[in-house]
Amino acid sequence: MTYCVAMRLEAGLLFASDSRTNAGIDHIASFRKMHLFEQPDERLIVLLSAGNLATTQSVVSLLRQRVDQDRPNLRNVTSMYDAAVLVGTTSKEVYARDGCYQGAGQSVDFGGDFLLGGQIRGEAPRLFQIYSPGNFIEATFDTPYFQIGESKYGKPIIDRVVRHHTSLIEAAKCTLISFDSTLRSNLSVGLPIDMLLYQANSFCQAKPQRIDQDDPYFHLLQKGWGEGLKRVFARLPNASWFEPEAKKE
Amino acid sequence: MTYCVAMRLEAGLLFASDSRTNAGIDHIASFRKMHLFEQPDERLIVLLSAGNLATTQSVVSLLRQRVDQDRPNLRNVTSMYDAAVLVGTTSKEVYARDGCYQGAGQSVDFGGDFLLGGQIRGEAPRLFQIYSPGNFIEATFDTPYFQIGESKYGKPIIDRVVRHHTSLIEAAKCTLISFDSTLRSNLSVGLPIDMLLYQANSFCQAKPQRIDQDDPYFHLLQKGWGEGLKRVFARLPNASWFEPEAKKE
């Protein structure tokens, strides 16, 4: 499994991904799911991947080996929309090559899901979610974030906190708490977390953070959040409608 | 969709279920998913259902119309284990009758999932999760709760709070918060919530609570929890590793 989040906020873009992959619960490995395509001062494109690792790795490899070829590629497309089309097309290409296999009674899902965000000079930052069939949707003011992979455990906290105007650093705090909830509930999502914050219009070199099990800030958030939740919970009153029955004992 | 939770704690049993069913997003209805089989002073058996409504309603109807027949039924089985076997067998019977339909290109899931808990005199309270194929598992000291239906959004808070020794009234508070998170994230889970707390060895008449949109306690929890989370979140520090980049702007 996988958990990836990306946000398009007023202040810029946020990307985060876990690193655990598994082919069955007895075959677990660590792979980076955040892929950068940069051209300093001109564009930053970030791709997060989930789903079939063979498919998503192939898509990333093809996107990389084509950046120097004379065809539409992630270095020469002039809009993030065109970048999304390119990723979708490449995903369909890999699926057409590898996805026709019918195992002996085995159902294999060859699909890959992607979050693609970034900024190309001349445009504002944009963020897309690209589905297995290669089609995609774009984040808007009302829905500033997307998730792929194991999204449910970590969604409530994002829904409560993140809005279009949330600052990048607050969004990063919220995202790490969202990862904490997910890591606790699903063993197939695992550390380290790769996180990248991009300030709109900065076009500066990307400096992804790698958050592993010894990261002091992540520890502090885990502890503070867990204790804080328990404190809020303890202070909330109990229902009165059970008391009469309790007294009977 | 559906969300049901049941807990087997030191103090007794807790059951909670939402009331929304849907056959497609354009066909939403309200059905009670909590079914009681009582014999005052002798047994209380509670069945929560999720999955295909036709299947689960049939299972409940058959269990009900057989309580007066001269065969194993929920009024004469001598253990909760035998009650679980009975529900599993009845579920298989309905599936064998209705589940063979192959729609024209449509894939219909005829399966039903159940949580079955209760106490029969001579035994401690017990709780089972019964799967579509009719097999089942029992709650233990280490895993005191089960969920069926849309379980993920509301799981993290239960995992943080509920232990075997948690009191029923605290577990009820936690369960309602878990429902709040689920209701916010999945429109196919809906009010009213049916909730039943059963004190171990009380064998008293069950008094389920129905919590609808006007319930003042549920309102208070929703508000207090939401505000509390935001307060905890606001007090947690921001990451220091983003500050240098922020200063550049």
TrEMBL record, chains A, B:
Gene3D superfamilies: Glutamine Phosphoribosylpyrophosphate, subunit 1, domain 1 (3.60.20.10). InterPro entries: Ntn_hydrolases_N, Proteasome_sua/b, UCP009120_prtse. It comes from the Bacteria. Pfam families: Proteasome. One of its GO terms (cellular component) is proteasome core complex. Signal peptide: none annotated. One of its GO terms (biological process) is proteolysis involved in protein catabolic process. This is Peptidase.
